[in-house]
Amino acid sequence: MWMFVGLGNPGVSYGNNRHNIGFMAVDTIAARWSFPGFRQKFKGLFSEGALGGERVLLLKPQTFMNLSGESVASAARFYKIDPSRIFVFHDELDLQPGKVRVKTGGGNAGHNGLKSIDAHLGTPDYGRIRLGIGHPGDRDRVHGYVLSDFSKADEVWLRALLDALADHAPLLTQGKSNDFMTRVAESRTP
């Protein structure tokens, strides 16, 4: 089994925040591939389905970003999912809006959700789907920026990105992370 984790903050008021792009990605994958409705468990919302012939657990931790690892570790233990079969979809300040990078392991670049997951899994060796949201230009503005909603102007690239992520998600379960990244980029090129 694989686990795709979307990072975000629970609650309607956070729904369209830049920090919630991970939730948006997982929701779009669930809709595209007809996963059943999300249920509550593991301090999160989860749904089980299939992608590319492989069983996949979709998880949206409901612990708030800084405690995401509690939910991820709980689900991973229950289903006996190795960190090498986990992909975390998260916002990335250091990438231009709409850009995507896939990597395994490495640092958390100050992302509190990733810090929590590292601590609770005991390893940083899981896949990260880094979803570019851009940087506000000043370090002091980062907190307000990630917790503010996407603008109307962002909606065009955001919808295209989410659709591309969902379209090509089965490549991740086939061990084709590089192909996934390439296909997402190509499908977004006008």
Overview of the molecule:
The mean pLDDT is 95. It is built from 7 helices and 7 strands. The protein starts with a strand and ends with a helix. The protein has a single domain (2-187), classed as Rossmann fold (3-Layer(aba) Sandwich). It has helices at residues 21-32, 68-79, 112-121, 142-146, 155-168, 170-173, 177-187; strands at 2-6, 39-41, 44-51, 54-61, 86-92, 100-104, 127-132. It is of the alpha/beta class and 190 residues long. Strands 2-3-4-1-5-7-6 form a 7-stranded mixed beta sheet.
SSE topology:
Blueprint: E1 2-6, H1 21-32, E2 39-41, E3 44-51, E4 54-61, H2 68-79, E5 86-92, E6 100-104, H3 112-121, E7 127-132, H4 142-146, H5 155-168, H6 170-173, H7 177-187
Helix pairs in contact: 1-5, 2-3, 5-7
Report the strand count.
Answer: 7
Strand content: 15-25%
Which residues form runs of ≥5 with pLDDT under 50?
none
Largest sheet: 7 strands, mixed
- State Rg: 15 Å
The CATH superfamily is known as: Peptidyl-tRNA hydrolase
The helix content, as a percent range, equals 25-40%
Whole-number tally of structural domains: 1
Report the principal-axis shape.
globular
- Order of strands side by side in the largest beta sheet? 2-3-4-1-5-7-6
Number of helices: 7
Summed over residues and divided by their number, the pLDDT gives a mean of 95
